[in-house]
Amino acid sequence: MQGLWTALSFLTILPVRKPGTRSPRDLGKAAIWFPLVGVLLGVLLVGFYFLLDGRVPDRLRAGLLLGLWVLLSGGLHLDGLADCLDGLLVTADRERRLTILRDPGTGAFAVIGISLFLILKAAALEGLTAATVLLLAPAAGRSVMLLGMFYPSAREGGLGAVFKSGLTPLRIGAASFVPLLLAGTLGMQGFLALILAILTALLVFQFAKARIGGVTGDVLGAACELSELVVLFLFVVS
């Protein structure tokens, strides 16, 4: 269970006490729990959804759900997406892009991209009719991050590299059970959403590999956020 506390303390702002002293490499070992942490976030989102349902307009409900979603994750993956928008889209060489990724400042690409992303996610939440999708989206987003193991690390010693060092194909396979189970409860749409989430993450990783030679912690966060959005979109438009 120590892995679960490690995953919870890293991926959420929930007040859990991580037992003992853990090394960064333990994060990779705890990756098997990432989808379950996503489910826990989803349970809180579903509860909030039903608490607001019928009591506030759909648009306000969507905004409040989005706010809770960002709050529970501490904006961790959203920050990764913002850094990737600044670092990967700029016209520069590899080293310059890596420097921008490490820069805590926020550029124009990040401001514009995150604003558009949040608008799209809020719109998807407004059009959502099946609350159970709020279980699948965060679980899928945190599952596809593990696929970054199959790509080289862009920066040795970074969070992405340390994370990968504790991962194994067996842990990834075990972690896939939860999103597969959730997808099954939603029928063919659920499986299609999961496939699209995986493809989205792979596209993000491939783009990062082309731009900076591999993945970083920020790239993993960007893959999580974009995969979540794809899952929501599928259930809104289909």
What is the secondary structure topology, with strand pairs?
Layout: H1 2-11, H2 25-29, H3 34-52, H4 58-72, H5 76-89, H6 94-102, H7 108-126, H8 133-144, H9 159-165, H10 169-175, H11 177-185, H12 187-212, H13 217-237
Helix pairs in contact: 3-4, 3-8, 4-7, 5-6, 5-7, 5-13, 7-13, 8-11, 8-12, 8-13, 9-13, 11-12, 12-13
Describe this structure in words.
The protein has helices spanning 2-11, 25-29, 34-52, 58-72, 76-89, 94-102, 108-126, 133-144, 159-165, 169-175, 177-185, 187-212, 217-237. The protein starts with a helix and ends with a helix. The chain is built from 13 helices and no strands. The longest helix is centred in the C-terminal third of the chain and has 26 residues, at 187-212. Helix content is 73%, strand content 0%. By secondary structure, the protein is mainly alpha-helical.
What is the overall number of helices? 13
Strand content: under 5%
Which regions are unreliable across 5 or more consecutive residues at pLDDT < 50?
Answer: none
Main beta-sheet annotation:
none
Residues in helix, %:
over 70%
Quick one: overall form? Answer: globular
Query: Overall pLDDT, averaged?
Result: 88
Order of helices and strands: HHHHHHHHHHHHH
Q: What is the structure about, briefly put?
A:
With 238 residues, this protein is mainly α. Helix content is 73%, strand content 0%.
Main traits of this protein?
about 240 residues; mainly alpha
